[in-house]
Amino acid sequence: MSGDGSSVEAAAGRSPDDRDRNAHDLPLDAHLHTDLSPDGDVPIDVYAALAVERGIRELAITDHVDFDARDPAYEYASFERRERTVREAAERWAPRGVTIRFGAELTYNTAWDADLRRHLATHAYDFTIGSVHDWPDSPYVPWKVRSWATGRSLAEALGPYLEQITAAARSGLFDTIGHIDVVRRYLHASWSAPEIYGAVELFEPALRALIGSGTALELNSSGYRHPAHEAYPGPPLLARYRELGGTVVTAGSDAHREQQFAWGLEAAYRVLAEAGITALTFRRDGVRTRIPLPDPSSIPSAGDAA
Ligand SMILES: [Zn+2]
Ligand SMILES: [Zn+2]
């Protein structure tokens, strides 16, 4: 999972245009990392206090869980410690109007599908994100990706990632699939976001797998902090998901630092509203629940995030 909290984005916490994209008055941020993720440094109470201050009414704490011993979140914080930390914070903050759910972002790969399945069968989370990161044997790790991209077509370069993300979407193991086109970030030195969006059909098997398994698509606003300044997925992928009949969507900021809390999330909500999505889908107390999106006119223009 070495993709999420890398130093550039983490140190900056803002995009180069330096606009204020702190979100206010939203129902949910469903993707947050605390200091119980190896690449996060935020005590849970800091997020909760920000949520009270800014009117973000519900949070899912989704610290990393890795299954390859070479990945940084492998046995980083035990399930028991993570659960206790979140449940105790939830009790402390409920009286102040913030609901905190115990989730996880689990790194998916077919190589450890069985381990992951076993983990989820024996550990109860409120909400689960399945994500594909630049796994250790992949060609997307920083020291391999440039030579991997050289001399390959875009379809070939995307291939191993798309195979894994499609398997994750098909697995039915997760409430949502995180940052479905984060591979854009790994390949950004070789292909621009518009070039990758130009081949949006390559993502269709993954989008169809989401729809087929009833797994939510995540709108992840961390992309506004990254070079292409677009959420994951970018608008063309979201449009294709909609064309294929997809309606089940969640949203999160994927914060790893205090200043990243809910950052860019208003823009992400706006993108969803403009794509005709009327509600987020989230699991509350074991029940899949629709959370109506705010009136689009009350959300700042998505153009602010372009
Ligand atoms: Zn991730
Ligand atoms: Zn994350």
Would you mind describing this structure in some detail?
The longest helix is centred in the middle third of the chain and has 18 residues, at 154-171. A seven-stranded parallel β-sheet has the order 1-2-3-4-5-6-7. Strand 1, helix 2 and strand 2 form a beta-alpha-beta unit. Residues 2-17 and 302-306 have low confidence and may be disordered. Helices cover 34% and strands 16% of the residues. It starts with 6 loop residues before the first helix and ends in a 14-residue tail after the last strand. The protein has a single domain (7-297), classed as Alpha-Beta Barrel (TIM Barrel). Helix 2 (44-54) runs parallel beside helix 3 (79-93) and helix 6 (154-171) runs parallel beside helix 9 (204-213). It is built from eleven helices and nine strands. The protein is an alpha/beta fold and 306 residues long. Bound molecules: zinc ion (2 copies). Residues 4, 31, 33, 105, 254 line the site of one zinc ion.
Poorly predicted runs are 2-17, 302-306
How do the strands line up in the largest sheet?
1-2-3-4-5-6-7
**Cα end-to-end separation:** 27 Å
- Describe the largest sheet: 7 strands, parallel
Q: Which structural category fits the helices and strands?
A: alpha/beta
Tell me the fraction of residues in β-strands, as a range.
15-25%
Anisotropy-based shape: globular
Helix content: 25-40%
Q: What is the fourth-level CATH superfamily?
A: Metal-dependent hydrolases
